[in-house]
Amino acid sequence: MAGEGITQAANWIFSEYQSVVSLLPQWSQSLISLFALSLLVSIYVVIVWHGYRFLSKKDPLGLNLNQYNNYQHAFFTKLVKGGFYFIEYIIISPFIIFVGFSVFTIMFALLSQNLAAKQILLVSATIIAVVRITAYYKEDLSKDVAKLIPFTLLAVALSNFLNLQKIFTGFAEIPLLIGDIGIYLLFIIGLEMVLRFFDFIFSLFDLEEIEVQETNP
């Protein structure tokens, strides 16, 4: 029902837009369409710009909840530290990353052409996963990936003669995305848990420190 409502609303908005624009001179219709497309692409670019700066960081939030650990006893200090670690990196961070993933997926759905909802979700999830994996290896590499792939997808969308009608058609895919997007939250949580586990193992053996020394003689 909700999906049909979104689709009907998108079709109604587009039909109203067409009826209003059709009353204007031909030259102004093209300018309005150009402005609307430019506005949408600008929103996409701004989202990607802010998103890559956030998602490409190994610790995107940087909350450091352990600073609020005031216990003096060693056992309780470690217990609270573990609790803060779980809350920050297993609950809050994956959820925020998931929100970014959802926003990017919706924008990608509006710009993508001839892709089904499951394909859009798969592509978006793959991009987020690659960005997060590379963030634990090299943040500079992760930043490049987080910028390059979304902008490449934008270039492909523009080369396919993107127009407003196709964009409004993309709204019909959003309800389908919402229906299947929950499983990707579990995927993001699981991925962050695996990455954190290996990051912890590497830190035990000081592998990160060795790598820094090798790259900076």
Write the layout of secondary structure elements.
Elements: H1 2-21, H2 26-55, H3 74-111, H4 117-137, H5 139-159, H6 164-170, H7 174-180, H8 182-204, H9 207-215
Helix pairs in contact: 1-6, 2-3, 2-5, 3-4, 3-8, 4-5, 4-7, 4-8
Q: Spell out the helices and strands N to C.
A: HHHHHHHHH
What is the strand content? under 5%
Low-confidence stretches: 209-217
- The outline comes out as elongated
**Alpha-carbon distance between the two ends:** 62 Å
Mean pLDDT rating: 76
In short:
The chain is built from nine helices and no strands. The chain is mostly helical and 217 residues long.
Give an overview in words.
The chain is mainly alpha-helical and 217 residues long. The protein has one domain (2-215). It is built from nine helices and no strands. The chain has helices at 2-21, 26-55, 74-111, 117-137, 139-159, 164-170, 174-180, 182-204, 207-215. Helix 4 (117-137) packs across helix 7. The longest helix has 38 residues, at 74-111. The protein is elongated. Mean pLDDT is 76; it is low at 209-217.
Summary tags:
217 residues; mainly alpha; 81% helix
